[in-house]
Amino acid sequence: DSGVTQTPKHLITATGQRVTLRCSPRSGDLSVYWYQQSLDQGLQFLIQYYNGEERAKGNILERFSAQQFPDLHSELNLSSLELGDSALYFCASSGTSGSSYEQYFGPGTRLTVT
Amino acid sequence: EDQVTQSPEALRLQEGESSSLNCSYTVSGLRGLFWYRQDPGKGPEFLFTLYSAGEEKEKERLKATLTKKESFLHITAPKPEDSATYLCAVLPFYSGGSNYKLTFGKGTLLTVNP
Fold first, then answer.
1. For residues A10 and A112, what is the distance between their CA atoms, to the nearest angstrom?
2. What pLDDT was estimated at residue B96?
């Protein structure tokens, strides 16, 4: 158990809808990262937040947005969903043990868009 | 652009048959190289961080090594429970401040038969 929690575990929704994925980092970790994993693309970095501020951005679509709250939990919002958005979404956190570069991943949210 | 290439894509071993997985990388300057293990439908599990050429890290039957252009994950006398996808990721030096964007390879799917 990495200490990172994600909810929900599974999400099934229709095209055009909007969903919110939630992540709680390990206790004390200030950085939260979001990744998308699909069969053909592998693990793709989406965005990083550090103590409430956006720090790095990957190939995140404009339909996607994220934020990190004062209690350090983070939410990833996906809107106008398309079939191609079906994937595993992972949250990771870093900062409090070992090297601050080491990212610890949550169990993921499996999103299915029908 | 940072690139990470892992080979082979898939590897089948008999229990006890040692082998190595390769991770080749292209990055302007390497701050760190990371190995993760991922079981199907689960989040990646952190294994090792390597920082400089010549460095080695060991954990049970796994040993990771680093050169200036590649890293190897050596698996000695593997057991069926070592079956998983092994992912390699790089963190470049130009990531400033607390920007810790990782670039992942697509992974090597290891299957160890009893």
1. 8
2. 60
